[in-house]
Amino acid sequence: MQKSHQALWQHCLHLIKQNVAEQTYKTWFEPIVFESYDEKLSTVLVQVPSPYIYEFLEQHYVRLMAWALNNSFKTNVKLKYRLVVDRENGKTQEVEGERPAEIDPPAGTRANQSPTVFDGAKSQQLNPQLDPNKTFESFIEGDSNKLPRAVGLSISEHPGKSTFNPFFVFGPSGCGKTHLINAIGVECKRRAPKSRVLYVSARLFQVQYTDAVRQNTVNDFINFYQTIDVLIVDDIQEWVSSPKTLDTFFFIFDHLFRLGKQIILASDRPPVDLDGVKERLLTRFSCGLIAELEKPDTQLCVDILNDKCSRDGLKIPADVILYIAQTANGSVRDLQGVVNSLMAYSIVYNSAIDMHLAERLIKRAVKVDNAPLTIDEILDRVCQHYGVSQQNVFSKSRKREFVQVRQVSMYLAQKYTKMPASRIGQLIGGRDHSTVLHSCAAVEQRLKVDKAFVDDINSIEQSFKLKQ
After folding, report:
1. Which of 29, 91, 309, 385 could hold 314 in an S-S bridge, CB 3.0 to 4.6 Å?
2. Which residues does 213 contact at the CB level (< 8 Å), separation at least 6?
3. Bond preceding residue 166 cis, omega within 30 of 0
4. In this structure, are residues 182 and 130 in contact, taking their beta carbons and an 8 Å threshold?
5. What is the pLDDT of residues 167-191, one digit of tens each?
6. Are 27 and 255 in contact (CB under 8 A)?
7. What pLDDT is recorded for position 121?
8. For residues 273 and 237, what is the distance between their CA atoms, to the nearest angstrom?
9. What are the DSSP calls for 148-163, one per residue?
């Protein structure tokens, strides 16, 4: 009798197979093992290899399975699952399947239906959504990115075949995460042009999923992503408040991982800090390699700027490059913004790229609160305090009040900027370095004996809102 129940179950699977794509059937239905049929309770007991398969079946195929069971067993059959929760220790858990309110037969079999994304996914031309300019050649190596870059190169040589799967990269904004993961994708595609490589932002993935839910095409959405050979997802921290998106990605992740496909993820924080992400997904994020991309130091910023100047044919003085590198606060994105602004202003106003121009533009391009003071800002605050115009300061006049503003400006510029005395003199009235040194000495001497003058300097420094 048990054998006939087994045969009825096989007939049930046959009906399901006629109504889903082949890959879908192999992924979700072939792993199901028939155990028994209880005639008194009209219940079929089946075993599934993991809880996630049970969850997926209940979420997406409960009506199809109910229809197939009733059609095969010719009665109102209930389904019970035995979930393998601990394979090593042989622990299982029985769970009652859901009974759908309505059981409708499928509209038709795959033989008489139009092709879907499921059926054609393998043969479709896939746009990898990669930036061809973000390659390993343009990803400058430094102490802050040496390990992640080396791992990325290793992955691109043998995607999915190393222990670096998944590869989880994290780091602050502007440190080069997107460039690195994009470079891996470009190299994978170069080495294996027929491979299905896809870069997608977490936000776009979520939009696609939301559209699929609205259009009732979630199965097609999942199946498409399950055909990818190298899946690259950027900014996954954006999913922390989207549990349904995370659950769907879990199914995709697990499927690709079991098939040995490469998964690359980027975030602004490590997995342990992704609040709201379920433990089952966090453990999968952490089972490969987690690598941190740190903010580039000043030397790496200088190397990045020199490389960009070389590739773009720009001529920027070394002192300006050093100033930008020191001011950009370790952000590659800010470095590029400053250089682009310098280039645009230089072209529009037909002027040379120098320190004065860099100082004027740096705070427009670098969005940081603690950017160093510029000569223009210091001059503006000093002139405002003493009620003198900058034109008077730049003049050759030896009037006492003008000389005082000039000397104070030079003193504060030397104190709050990293510029040499010669550069400070050029920017404040075209004076030489000896004038700057003399002015600084005069101010320091006066601070020792003139309390009112000390109060003036303190007031100006307070307006800078910088810590002494």
Report:
1. 309
2. 244
3. yes
4. yes
5. 999 988 778 889 999 999 999 999 9
6. yes
7. 43
8. 9
9. HHHHHHHHHHSTTTSS
